[in-house]
Amino acid sequence: MIGVVSRDGQHLAALANGSAGEMAQAWHDCLHNNPPWEPAGGPPAERRWRLKVYVMANDPEKLLARVKSDFPRAARAQ
Description:
This protein is of the alpha+beta class. It has two helices and five strands; from the N terminus they run E-E-E-E-E-H-H. It has helices at 60-70, 72-77; strands at 2-5, 11-17, 23-27, 30-33, 51-57. The strands form two sheets. It has a three-stranded antiparallel beta sheet with strand order 1-2-5, covered by helices on one side. Strands 3-4 form a two-stranded antiparallel sheet. Strand 1 and strand 2 (11-17) form a beta hairpin. The chain is globular. The protein starts with a strand and ends with a helix.
């Protein structure tokens, strides 16, 4: 998961996925999300890139709960 808080502190935007080996926030509110296509060895037409974009009130605990719910496998890997 990677995110940014609005300049007024009222809202946040975040990206989450269950498979990225790396994520980066390169410049201000620019978010780079690099999950691999899955399944890696599957036929190209059957590969998926699953991610979620969250835009919400600035409530990090609520965001974390939603991400854990949406990506339970990734939450266990932490």
